[in-house]
Every structure is written in C-alpha cells, then in structure tokens.
Amino acid sequence: MSQTIDLIPLDAVDPALVEALLDRAFPPGRQARTAYRVRGSVAPVASLCFAALAGDGTLIGSIQCWPITLTDAQGSRWPMIMIGPVAVAPERQRDGIGRRLFLHMLAAAERQGLDRAMMLIGDPEYYGRFFGFSAERTARWELPGPVERHRLLARGPDVPDRAGMLGPGDPGFTAQASIPTSN
User: Taking the chain, what is the end-to-end CA distance rounded to the nearest angstrom?
Assistant: First the structure.
C-alpha cells in the first residue's frame, strides 16, 4: 500500500493541529520534559521545521528545530541546533515518516550551513546508526533538568566538547553563529 506523503514547511500548518499531533504522539506532561526547558521560549528555526501530510491533507508528522546555546563558566557561548520533537501520528508510526522528516531536515540544514553543531535527546542506537549522532562530546554538558546521559547526542564538526550549561539560543541563529562568542 503506497500513500502519498507531502513534506511542507511547518509554519504552513495551523499551530493547533501541530499541538494536537504532539499530544497524540507523546505522553501527557511533555511540556515538563528537559528538552522543553533547554529550548525555553525562543522561536523555532522555521527553515528547519517541517510537516508531513497524508494525501488527503491530514497532518501525520512533524519535526521542529530550535536555536540553543552551550555556555561555559567563563561566559563563552557555542550556538547549536536542537532537534525535536519528531512526532508521528500513532497510527502511522513505523511507516518511515519520522525518518523521512529527519532526512529532509538534515538536507535543509546542510544547504543552509546549519548542520555544523546539532544535538538531540534520543535513542543512541537509532540516531547513531541512521544519522551519525553520538554522546562522544556531550559528557560534560549540563541541562536544566534530568536526562539519561547516554541519550544526550550530537553531531557536526563544531559541537563543543567542553563543560557548560545548555539553554535557549539567540533567536537570530545563523550559520555564522557557530563561532564561540563571549559575553
């Protein structure tokens, strides 16, 4: 059974529909998770956020990316992109929709030069095997909430391998922002 799936910019979808999808795809209380605290209230990186629509126009998946920053004890900052949530309608999970959204987002990030420092909280076996993420450089990162350390993953040549606190990034994140800055 082959069904058409269209990937479109997420900002073309009604935000209420996106929230309803997230509510269906994740357990209650998702907003209290550490990932929500890391990204804070900054706006997502719209050019890296996508929706998957079934042939009938129904929203069946989404991926969002956020500007975040690792700040060390001296106040130096390393901007990164935090990936997630990746949500797929429960009845469509295991259809490859999340993987397709992820690959589409990675291609967009590469085209825009935003793939040099990316991170997520997720399954290391999956994200390592298919997308090259690892916990190799994340061991000294602190987060504003609990995290299973082996699930704190990153990829890209500019991922900082240093101690620091993850938090919301600058709303105007650009590829040039990958250069460490001091406060």
Answer: 55
80's enclosing H/E stretch is: strand 77-88
The whole-angstrom separation of Cα 31 and Cα 23 is 10
Q: What is the rounded CA–CA span in Å between residue 135 and residue 155?
A: 9
Residues facing 168 on adjacent strands: 68
Distance CA 115, CA 180 (A): 16
Report CA 144 to chain centroid distance, whole Å. Answer: 17
d(C-alpha 153, C-alpha 132), whole Å: 9
Distance, in Å, from the CA atom of 142 to the CA atom of 124, rounded to the nearest integer, reads 18
- What's the average pLDDT block by block, 10 residues per block, for the chain (183 residues)? 83 96 89 90 95 96 97 95 96 94 97 96 94 96 94 97 94 50 43
The residue among 99, 117, 120 whose CA lies nearest residue 156 is 117
Angstrom distance (rounded) from CA 161 to CA 140: 8
Closest CA to 48 of 61, 63, 35: 63
pTM of the complete model: 0.90
Q: What angle do CA 12, 117, 52 make, to 5 degrees?
A: 25
CA distances from 36 to 8, 84, 124, 145 (A): 24, 9, 20, 10
CA 39, CA 59: separation in Å to the nearest integer?
24
Other beta carbons less than 10 A from residue 160's beta carbon: 23
